[in-house]
Each structure stands twice: as structure tokens, then as C-alpha cells.
Specification:
Elements (H helix, E strand, L loop, with lengths): L1 H22 L15 E2 L2 E2 L1 H13 L1 H4 L12 H7 L2 H10 L1 E3 L6 E3 L6 H4 L2 H12 L9 E2 L1
Parallel strand pairs: 2-5
Antiparallel strand pairs: 1-2, 3-4
Helix pairs in contact: 1-5, 2-7, 4-7
Bound molecules: heme C (HEC).
Heme C (HEC) binds next to helix 3, helix 4, helix 5, strand 3 and strand 4.
């Protein structure tokens, strides 16, 4: 249990570094910014494809097919345009509960769900590709 939570702290720390680096290039250098996914001739890398699979196994029931949101949970294609990797990792691992609105909304914690936690970066890569407009709806083609 302790070892596992240390592991996740490590994941968040690495994500934090990656997020800080991603913020550093000036606007003009954006094309050279490293993306978490790679798409060649409309085909995605293995990690991004796996992210699509994992997303549709664990997240789409609330966040809708292709990340487009539902009446219950936010559109993640929009969310990932603004939130950083570490914010993403924090919410997915620890969950979040919004008790301020009349209607209670709960994002479950996935830190102990190995099918999600192990593949967090893949899910992130898939959603980033969707947020960047680099990947359309539906099942992506593999490279
Ligand atoms: C049981 C329904 C449910 C499932 C399953 C679920 N979520 Fe959520 N998620 C929510 C709700 C509801 C919120 C909004 C919480 C709030 O109001 O703060 C949310 C919020 C989020 C946010 C923050 C969005 C933002 O704009 O701040 C991220 C990122 C996220 N979820 C990712 C995921 C991922 C990735 C998965 C699959 C591993 C997943 N969620 C599975 C219900 C769910």
C-alpha cells in the first residue's frame, strides 16, 4: 500500500516536470513541442491506440464516446485543451467530488484501478490527440 502510493507520487512528480517543460517553449516554437502521441498518415502509435481502448473501457460511460462529454461528466476533449498533465493525473488518480452544485457530481478515484493507473499516459495521449484536433472520432487506425 505504502509502496504503491509512493509509486503514484513518482508518477505525479514526473508529470509535473513534463508539464513544466511543456509550458516553457515560446509560442513560435510550438510545432517542435513534443506531443505525447504520434500520428503518421492518419494512423496512431500503439500507446495512443491503447489509450483509445482504455478510455472506452473505463471512462466513456460517464465522459461519453470519443471524450465528448455527457450530461453527467465534462467533455474531456475540451478539458484537455486547458488542463496540464499533472492536473489530469491528479484528478484521475485521486478522483474529485463537486459538492457545491445542487446536483452532486463525482469523478471516481482510479489510483487503485490497475487497468487505468498503469495506462494513464496512454489515455492522456489519446485525449490530447483528440483535444489538439489531430484525431477524429471513432476507432483510430494503428500504425
Ligand atoms: C462514474 C462516472 C465517471 C467515470 C467512470 C469517469 N469520470 Fe472523470 N469525471 C466525472 C465527473 C462527474 C467529473 C466532474 C467532477 C467535478 O465536478 O469536479 C469528472 C472529471 C474528470 C476530469 C477533470 C475535467 C476538468 O475539466 O477538470 C478528468 C481529467 C477526468 N474526469 C478524466 C477521467 C478519465 C481519464 C476517466 C477514465 C479512466 C474518467 N474520468 C472516468 C465522472 C466520471
Amino acid at each position: 500500500m505504502l509502496a504503491r502510493s509512493r509509486l503514484w507520487l513518482g508518477v505525479v512528480a514526473v508529470g509535473w516536470t513534463a508539464g513544466a517543460l511543456a509550458l516553457s517553449p515560446p509560442a513560435g516554437a510550438q510545432d517542435e513541442e513534443e506531443k505525447p502521441y504520434s500520428i503518421t498518415d492518419g494512423k496512431v502509435d500503439q500507446a495512443t491506440y491503447n489509450g483509445w481502448r482504455r478510455y472506452h473501457a473505463s471512462c466513456h460511460t460517464c465522459h461519453g464516446p470519443d471524450g465528448l462529454g455527457s450530461s453527467y461528466a465534462p467533455n474531456l476533449v475540451d478539458s484537455l485543451k486547458t488542463i496540464s498533465y499533472d492536473e489530469f493525473a491528479e484528478v484521475v488518480i485521486n478522483g474529485r467530488q463537486n459538492v457545491n452544485t445542487g446536483q452532486q457530481s463525482v469523478m471516481p478515484a482510479f489510483g487503485e484501478v490497475m487497468d487505468v493507473a498503469t495506462y494513464l499516459d496512454d489515455i492522456y495521449a489519446y485525449l490530447e490527440a483528440r483535444a489538439d484536433g489531430a484525431l477524429g472520432r471513432g476507432r483510430p487506425q494503428k500504425q
